Description:
By secondary structure, the chain is mostly helical. The protein has one domain (about 5-60). It is built from three helices and no strands. The protein has helices spanning about 10-15, 20-25, 30-60. The longest helix is centred in the last third of the chain and has 33 residues, at about 30-60. The model has no long low-confidence stretch (mean pLDDT about 95).
Amino acid sequence: MASQQLPKELQILYHRTPDELQKELDTLPPEAAKGALEALNSLHHVMEREIYQLVLRMIQALR
């Protein structure tokens, strides 16, 4: 899969993934790889929000 075919946000995510995952993504048809990266990106955003909420609760608990 040529990462240049992906939207910019997915290109960045692709290049931030471990080599092993990149190799697996490269074996997929382009649309399947794009779908996998979109799912990973969505999960990343959910995890990021959860972490921010956790940090906020920790800060509030320290007051």
